[in-house]
Amino acid sequence: MRSELRPLALVYLGLLALLALTVAGSFLPLGHASPAVSFGIAMAKALLIVWFFMGFRREGWAVRLAVLAGLVWLTILLSLTLLDLLTRNWLMPHFGT
Amino acid sequence: MTRSGLVEEPFSDPEQQRRAALFGMTIFLATEILLFGGIFAALIFYQAAHREIFVETSRELHIWIATGNTVVLLTSSLFAALAVAAAKAGNGKATGWLLGVTAALGLAFLGLKGWEYALEYGEGLLPLAGGDAKLGEPGKRLFMDLYLMATGLHAVHVTIGVCLLLFIAARIATRATRMPEQATTIEVSTLYWHLIDVIWVFLFPALYLVR
Q1: Is B78 left (phi over 0), alpha (psi -120 to 50) or beta?
Q2: Residue A14 contacts by C-beta under 8 Å, 6 or more apart in sequence?
Q3: Which residues cross the membrane (chain A) (predicted)?
Q4: Which domains, from first to last, does chain B contain?
Q5: What is the pLDDT of residues B155-205, one digit of tens each?
Q6: Is B94 on the interface with A (CB under 8 A)?
Q7: Which end of chain B is less crowded, N or C, counting CB atoms within 10 A of the terminal residue's CB?
Q8: How many Å separate Cα B85 from the centre of its chain?
Q9: pLDDT tens across B178-188, in order?
Q10: How close A72 gets to chain B, by Cα (Å)?
Q11: What are the phi and psi torsion angles at B135 (to 5°)?
């Protein structure tokens, strides 16, 4: 158990640093880059939690694929939903005006 | 076989049984990702459609309570991961305590969240009867509707997680669950706990850091 303590504590400190970074970033005038920055940092935090805390670095591909399958469906859900909004004015410039 | 445990039908060895349990849990977690995915889709869609009012409303939320709550949940995840390490090492007593601390941090999260709701209710920001005085503008109400739904559903998950961890900690204390033979129980239930943490990691910027 002792051998586990060090890497887990380091990951924890990394997570806190990323949290500080994302909160500080929200006070900077990043404009339209702001959502990309905060979601990029969230992604990094999620990867740390999944890889180290959830122990996925030691698991086989069956377990990883189960979560990846969920992410594939999530990508379909988000991209098809946003496709409408992002292309609405592109295909029909005067739609809804 | 390193872990001579209780092997149930139809499994032939503990490791195979363990993998099947983890696989089942991760499939369930994938459905949870999609459950919250619907809320995220709505949040992202409306954020793109009503950017200005969403930014304005997001700034009115209590970002420091939410930041504190993020620290609480990240810390709880560390203790959950340590509980798995203790369980695999066969230290039942430490496993029970670590799960207890994880659950206590979950309760602290719920306490802080409740305080935050109370503040918002008093400020007229919560879309509930009597607490929505400042939600006249439709865009603002829409954001706070999504906020309440997302954080409410998340809080329900935290509550379930706390009950689950306390239940297992109690079973370890009464020696109904033994370590390391039943370490898989700890692994599977903490996977659920970590997912609750991961969902919060995404809810935090999607609600509090809209800029």
Answers
A1: alpha
A2: A48
A3: 34-54, 61-83
A4: 14-208 (1.20.120.80)
A5: 999 999 999 999 999 999 999 999 999 999 999 999 999 999 999 999 999
A6: yes
A7: N
A8: 20
A9: 999 999 999 99
A10: 10
A11: -100, 40
